[in-house]
Fold PLP-dependent aminotransferase family protein.
Amino acid sequence: MQFASRLDNVETSAIRELFKLLGKPGIISFAGGFPDSAMFDVEGLKEASQKALTEEAGGALQYGATEGYEPLRTQLSAFMKTKGVDVESNGLIVTTGSQQALDLLGKTMISPGDKVIVEGPTFLATIQCFRLYGAQLISAPIDANGVKTDELEKLIAEHKPKLVYLIPTFGNPSGATLSLERRKKVLELAVKYQTLIVEDDPYGDLYFGEAPPPSIMALSKDVSGSRELLAHCGSLSKVLSPGLRIGWMIAPPELLAKATMCKQFSDAHTSTFAQATAAQYLKSGRMPRTLAHVREVYGQRAQAMGAALKRELGDAVSFTQPNGGLFFWARLTGANGKLADANELAKRAIEKLVAFVPGAPFFAEKPDVATLRLSFATADVAKIEEGVKRLGQAL
Amino acid sequence: MQFASRLDNVETSAIRELFKLLGKPGIISFAGGFPDSAMFDVEGLKEASQKALTEEAGGALQYGATEGYEPLRTQLSAFMKTKGVDVESNGLIVTTGSQQALDLLGKTMISPGDKVIVEGPTFLATIQCFRLYGAQLISAPIDANGVKTDELEKLIAEHKPKLVYLIPTFGNPSGATLSLERRKKVLELAVKYQTLIVEDDPYGDLYFGEAPPPSIMALSKDVSGSRELLAHCGSLSKVLSPGLRIGWMIAPPELLAKATMCKQFSDAHTSTFAQATAAQYLKSGRMPRTLAHVREVYGQRAQAMGAALKRELGDAVSFTQPNGGLFFWARLTGANGKLADANELAKRAIEKLVAFVPGAPFFAEKPDVATLRLSFATADVAKIEEGVKRLGQAL
């Protein structure tokens, strides 16, 4: 069978292969990119789904508008307003997880050969998603304060990209958060070079201490002309439930209309059953308590992982303690002749019954094989301590 | 903003514009392509969703496998077996409605410029979906027994298409059902020309009297080598609920693996919440009763519409009485100087407070402006009779 030529640009990820090993009994996994099932507000979602099927069964079970189920768009508009983003319900579309927002951006914007700038490292599924549409990806370097905007400007000037894709808050895999100053700089670059900026923000609500800086979308009101060059992707997956597959995208009207047309032929619309359930949940007023709960639990786990890494691995790794999100991004320093290849460490770690994801696949260009990603979301504090101890032994 | 070049191949459908007029008070609509909300088994789905969130909340709310939630794949495999298709759970993937199965087929198979044969007329969203991937569509003519296989063979031989897309049972918009003899011929053509056949089957369960012939997929066991050249798309949308967005695709392993990879970057997976609910529903054993109910009600409506069309429009229209599905496909004959342009009739009909969809947009090539599609699904018998009377007046 002869497949479409666009498939030549992607491969099944190395990470997927690793995940097959995670079934090993007794393994402690820091490999996943998902929230802890124990955090789900099952009772709240039960009530919400029953209410949806009692009060609005017709809407919840019938075909719906491609743009999204109106009661959910209204709730999401209100939710975004609490985060400083002024958006009406018709200024956003509901997507089947924020993964679909990325897919629709690819379908709508990227012609084969178009250049797209991403952070190095960035979310693996974004790399593959955009490559399927023929994008040529260019990596902009980051540090603990997110993408280096001076380097980003050079790359924009040189490559004239179709869009710049950033995860500015608690990035995956980097855990890094773009500073307020750099956020403003990104907005200025958008206007100066008339370049579309995509802000992917699935983790922004998941902060442990102080709230992070406002989203780039929220800050756009301070930079004239920038809002028309911004798309913002949100998601309920990390804070409420990934299984609902509820994401959304805020974008300029013309882009939103084209993305909606593409969505019509992608899946017609996102499950109205899931949308009505999410709308009832948001309306119920339980979200603030749920957010407080996940922030507290993940915060403790992040604390425990940071302390354990220092204790067990010492100067063999360097990392910045994340203030939110799900991930530690670490780098093997090779100090004292220790291993500096994360792929090799991943193999040894599996033997010691602990798993993580090597960092190299997260780079669209110039992979750094010394890097690794550790999720602290799904193991409790005791398991985190035991797992990091095993990691130290593997090293 | 400069959008991707693939968007040049499609336009927002004329039908979408028509749908904006349907809000007019007092209108009777035969325009929709959706089932009647009053048919939904709300109680059964309430129970199923509660059971899913009680017995398997972790699975129903967490990220899931891209291929589909295993309990649902198991149920769908059993469901297909009752319809004569021998498929294991790993021989199918769950899709976000069968629209997504079409999208994944486009993404996986179609390179820009590839030729695809469809029926003339065919499902509008298939035309647009495949065009977005750069397909050049070729129309194969149909009659009351579905696609004319002798003409189809000529087109396959001439164009060597990437795939042939058919809705063999109660087609949309045609209502036509491919005869048993022609089904076998299609399978022989697949093998003879080594051409992928896509069987889209959202309506096959919705028959009013005798069951239709077995699906092409079910018949493939009689034609050696044909199964490896067949993809079959199924859906719960027309018989249970479109809002769940549960479809599935059966295909050869290599195609299924590539489509799964594409799905990973399209929406990661279909809502596990909706999948677990659908699995519980199928497991509950209520499906046969639900099917019996929808068959009976839609059967009565189809009967009423056929009789009313004869009574009110006489020889001004020709049509074949459908034995299942949701649609009448009719042709204005122009007899006795009556109108033969369905676009013009649609405008006059709206004035008389009745709506239908003109047939021309359903043709990928050579539109027949005398054709129209009438759905009998959402109006009850009294409204159908009144609506067709208005249609007669408009004519």
